[in-house]
Amino acid sequence: MGLLSILRKLKAREKEMRILILGLDNAGKTTILKCINGEDTSEISPTLGFNIKTLEHNGFKLNIWDVGGQKSIRSYWRNYFEQTDGLVWVVDSADRPDRMEDCRRELAALLQEERLAGATLLIFANKQDLPSARTKEQIAEILKLADIQTHHWHIESCSAVTGDRLLKGMDWIVGDIADRVFMLD
Ligand code: G3D
């Protein structure tokens, strides 16, 4: 048996997944993480370092890493790429046009990263409760998601304030990772 399949078997037994939450600062990453973890979302300070949360979802143990998105610390994202099963890319759907362009560029750069090559990608079009929020179809077009050939991807509209569709998105990413990583033996 190859080393890779042994590692997969070990991982399957633990049913553990490593998921990174990334996106520009202020996109709503920390609020999403707190919401899916069932915490009070009313008092959140901007992400300076990183948060790690471990939670159960559909029988899997998720280790979720939330790394800050300010421009000055984006270069540190790559320190967290190793062994990432899933990437959750959070978008402020009501953000300014120039920030949407930053968002497109940063995501495109991430998808070029060799260490993220195997990761499943979920895009959350967050802040749908705001009247000025773009639809997920508009976000998909701005981010040019249709061009992505290298990763399994899916976009879900959501609101971290109301909790709407967060679990639907998490179901999809956990299901896709489970199919890829745990069903190979
Ligand atoms: P980050 O971790 O990506 O940097 P945060 O983002 O989770 O800290 O959220 C940044 C701000 O956006 C917070 O507002 C937060 O309440 C708000 N926010 C997050 N998700 C939503 C959402 O779905 N809808 C709305 N309307 N706001 C959201 P403050 O005012 O605390 O800066």
From TrEMBL:
Keywords: GTP-binding, Lipoprotein, Magnesium, Metal-binding, Myristate, Nucleotide-binding. Belongs to the small GTPase superfamily. Arf family. The keyword Nucleotide-binding applies. SMART domains: ARF (SM00177), SAR (SM00178). PANTHER family: ADP-RIBOSYLATION FACTOR-LIKE PROTEIN 2-RELATED (PTHR45697). The keyword Nucleotide-binding applies. GO terms for molecular function: GTP binding; GTPase activity; metal ion binding. SUPFAM superfamilies: P-loop containing nucleoside triphosphate hydrolases. It comes from Rhizoclosmatium globosum. It comes from the Eukaryota. Mg(2+) binds at T30, T47. Coiled coil: none annotated. Pfam families: Arf (PF00025). NCBIfam families: small_GTP. This is ADP-ribosylation factor-like protein 2. GTP binds at G23, L24, D25, N26, A27, G28, K29, T30, G69, N126, K127, Q128, D129. Gene3D superfamilies: P-loop containing nucleotide triphosphate hydrolases. GO terms for biological process: protein folding; tubulin complex assembly.
